[in-house]
Protein: Phage protein
Organism: Caloramator australicus RC3
Amino acid sequence: MKKHALLSASSSKRWLMCPPSARLEENLPEEKTVYAEEGTFAHKVAEVFINFHIQKINKDEFATEMNKLSKSPFYTQELLDYLDIYISFAVEKINSIKNGIALIEQRLDFSQYVPEGFGTGDLVLIDENLLEIVDLKYGRGVAVEAQDNTQIRLYVLGALNQFECLYDIDTVKMTICQPRLDSITTEEVKVKDLKEWGENFVKPRAELAYKGEGEFCAGEHCRFCRARFTCRKRAEENLKLIKLDFKNEALLDDTEVLKILNRIDEIKRWADDIYTYALSLAVNEGKVWEGFKLVEGRSNRKFIDEKKVVEKLFRYGLSEGEIYTRSLNSITALERKLGKEKFNEILGDFVIKPQGKLTLVKETDKRPEFNSPQEDFS
Ligand code: SF4
C-alpha cells in the first residue's frame, strides 16, 4: 500500500484549485520539515492518551507507550500542555455519545470521489443521526479553520462511505482543534449538501488531477506546492503585476498602490521562493548564477568551551558577578515550570502585553481591527 496518495486530502485545497499540480509535483522531492515530524509525534501522543482515557489500553500499556514516546526530542511539557486541550475536548465528546461509536485514528477511504483517495481521521464520532470528525492540527504557523476545509470534508465523505450503511446519518460536523492557536472551529453541513459537493465539485477535478489535466491556477494554495519554486504559471501571474496599466506619472496614486497591496503577500512569497531555490542550488550543487556569488553573512564570535573559560577567569581573579550576568527566565519558561494556573495566581498581576507592531492586512483577516486610543475614547 502506498504511504501517500497522489491526491491526498491534506493537499486537496491545492489540487482542487490547480488540478495539474498533482502530477507536476509528483516526481519532485518531498519536503520533510521538523514541523511535520512534530505534528506526527503529537498525533501519536494524543492517540495513546485518548486510548487510555477510554480504557482501550490499560495502565501498563499506557506506561510502556509513554515511556517509548518520552525518548523523542519532541516530547516536552509544552507539547503535553497543548495536547491536553485537544485530549480533554476529544474525551468529553466521546463520553457524551448516547447511541453510536467513537473511532480513533481511523483510516478513511474516499476513493468513491477521488482516485485512490484515503486518509486518517483523528477522531470519528457517530451519535444517532450525526457524524462528526475532529481533526487535530498541532502547527501554529498557519491558522486552519473548519469552514470550507476541503481536507476534513473529504474525510467525512470517506466516513459516510464506510458507515452510512450502519447508521442513519443526516448531518455531519467537521471540527478542527488547533491548540497552539487556542482555536476550535466547527462547520455543520447536511449529508446531501456534502455529497453534492463531492459529486459535482470534487469528482470532476480529481479526475483531471489524476490524469494530469486541467488548467494551472496560481494563488495562495501555491505556497504548499513542491513545484512552487519554478512553476511558470505562478511566475506569469506574479509578473503580470508589472505589466499593470500604470499611469504615465512620476508618482503612484492610491489606486495603483492598492492594486499592488492586494497582491503583495503572494509576490513576497514568490520572490522568497525563487531566492531560496537559487541559493539552495548554489550552496548544495555549486551552481553559478551569472552575475551572482556566494558570500558569508555576518557572524558573532563565540566561546568553544565555556567551562574552561570560566575556570581561566576565576584563576585570573575575576569574581562570579564579573563573569556571569544574572537574568530572569522568560515568561514562557516560568509558565512551563509553574503550570498555567499557578503562574497566573502568583505572577498574573505582573504580566502585561504591550501593543504589537501594527501590520496592514486584508479585510478578510480574522484578527480584530486595531482601534487607536483616540478612536476607543470617542
Ligand atoms: S505552483 Fe501553483 S500554479 Fe504552479 S502547479 Fe503549483 S499550485 Fe499550480
User: Anything to note?
Assistant: The pocket of iron/sulfur cluster is lined by residues 14, 18, 21, 24, 216-218, 221-222, 225, 227-228, 231, 233-234 (CB under 6 Å). The beta strands are 100-109, 118-127, 130-136, 171-178, 183-190.
